[in-house]
C-alpha cells in the first residue's frame, strides 16, 4: 500500500499563513497540490501589501483574509474556521519543501501521535541573520530547561496536527510565539508528538523574513515567562520569592551583626526594609503554592477537553 493510499478517506487541510509572500506562494500551493492530491489548501492572507492573495487564488488555494496582524492571530483563525481530520501547517515563503508533507502525515498516522513537527536541519546556518541563529539556539535550550526535553526545534512552522490537537489548543498568542505555545501545550498535557528532521531551504530573492530579531525575541521571552507562570507557578513564584529573600538576608546581615554586638538597632530603616522584603518573599511563596493547585486543575480540564475530541481512526 502506497503512502497516499493510506491517506484515502482522510480529510486533509493544508493551512498556510501568509504576509507579503507573492514571490513564492504560487509554487508553495502547487507543491502541496502535487504532494497531497485531494487535500484542501487554505491561504490566510494577513494584510499583505503585495499580490499574495491573488497569486494564491490563481494557484488554486482557498484564500481567506485575516485583518488582525500577527501569525498567532492567523493560526487561531485557521484552527477555528477549518474542520478536517489532519492539518498540515507550513509557511508561504518556500523555505519548507511541500514534498515533505507526506512524511509528516505518514508519521502522524504511523506513530499514533497528535502533532508531528518538522525540525529544521541546519537552521542555525540558514536562519539568515546571526541574531536569528543565536536566538533560535538559545530559546530551544531555555525551553528544554523550563518545560522539558520533548522538542528540539520549538520554532518550526512545518507541522501536522490531528483534529484532536487543533480543536483543544487554546491559541492565545498573537505573533511568532504561537509555535512556542503549541509546544508548551503538548508538553503540559503530555500529548503524543514526534519530530521528523527535514530540509530547510533559503528564501528566494524578493522574499524577506518577517521576524524582527529584538522585537520578536523579547515577545517570545515574554511568552516564555507567561507560560512558565501559567504552567509552573511554583517555579515562577518560588524564584521570585527566593530572590526577595536573598536580598532581604543580604541587607539585614549588617543590622544583625550590630545587634548581636551592641544590642542596638541603629539602622531602623534597613531593618524595616529587610523585614518587608522577607514578608513579600513569604507571600510570593504562598501564591506559588496556591496557583500550583489551580494550575493542576486547569490541566485536568484541558486534558478532559482534549480527550473529548475524537482522534484519528485506527487503521
Automatic annotation (TrEMBL):
Superkingdom to which the source organism belongs: Bacteria
Spans traversing the lipid bilayer: 235-260, 272-294
Top-rank EC class of the record's enzyme: transferase
CDD domains in UniProt: DPM_DPG-synthase_like
Domain named Glycosyltransferase 2-like: residues: 14-166
Pfam families for the chain: Glycos_transf_2 (PF00535)
MF annotations from Gene Ontology: undecaprenyl-phosphate mannosyltransferase activity
Source organism per UniProt: Methylobrevis pamukkalensis
Keywords, sorted A to Z: Glycosyltransferase, Membrane, Transferase, Transmembrane, Transmembrane helix
EC number: 2.4.1.54
Protein name according to UniProt: Undecaprenyl-phosphate mannosyltransferase
Amino acid at each position: 500500500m502506497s503512502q497516499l493510499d493510506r491517506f484515502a478517506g482522510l480529510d486533509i487541510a493544508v493551512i498556510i499563513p501568509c504576509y507579503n509572500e507573492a514571490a513564492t506562494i504560487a509554487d508553495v500551493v502547487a507543491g502541496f497540490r502535487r504532494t497531497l492530491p485531494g487535500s484542501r489548501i487554505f491561504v490566510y492572507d494577513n494584510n499583505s501589501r503585495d499580490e499574495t492573495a491573488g497569486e494564491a487564488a490563481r494557484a488554486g488555494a482557498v484564500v481567506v483574509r485575516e485583518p488582525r496582524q500577527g501569525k498567532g492571530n492567523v493560526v487561531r483563525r485557521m484552527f477555528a474556521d477549518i474542520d478536517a481530520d489532519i492539518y498540515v501547517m507550513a509557511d508561504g515563503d518556500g523555505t519548507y519543501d511541500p514534498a515533505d508533507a507526506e512524511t509528516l502525515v505518514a508519521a502522524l498516522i504511523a506513530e499514533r501521535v497528535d502533532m508531528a513537527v518538522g525540525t529544521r536541519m541546519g537552521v542555525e546556518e540558514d536562519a539568515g541573520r546571526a541574531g536569528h541563529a543565536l536566538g533560535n539556539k538559545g530559546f530551544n535550550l531555555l525551553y528544554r530547561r523550563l518545560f522539558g526535553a520533548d522538542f528540539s526545534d520549538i520554532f518550526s512552522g512545518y507541522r501536522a496536527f490531528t483534529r484532536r490537537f487543533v480543536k483543544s489548543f487554546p491559541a492565545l498568542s498573537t505573533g511568532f510565539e504561537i509555535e512556542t505555545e503549541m509546544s508548551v501545550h503538548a508538553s503540559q498535557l503530555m500529548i503524543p508528538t514526534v519530530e521528523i528532521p527535514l530540509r530547510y531551504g533559503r528564501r528566494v530573492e524578493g522574499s524577506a523574513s518577517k521576524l524582527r530579531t529584538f522585537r520578536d525575541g523579547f515577545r517570545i521571552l515574554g511568552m516564555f515567562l507567561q507560560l512558565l507562570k501559567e504552567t509552573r507557578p511554583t517555579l515562577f513564584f518560588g524564584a521570585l520569592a527566593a530572590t526577595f529573600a536573598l536580598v532581604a538576608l543580604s541587607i539585614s546581615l549588617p543590622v544583625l551583626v550590630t545587634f548581636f554586638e551592641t544590642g542596638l538597632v541603629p539602622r531602623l530603616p534597613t531593618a524595616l526594609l529587610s523585614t518587608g522584603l522577607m514578608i513579600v518573599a513569604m507571600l510570593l511563596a504562598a501564591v506559588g503554592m496556591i496557583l500550583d493547585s489551580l494550575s493542576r486543575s486547569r490541566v485536568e480540564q484541558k486534558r478532559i477537553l482534549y480527550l473529548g475530541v475524537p482522534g484519528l481512526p485506527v487503521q
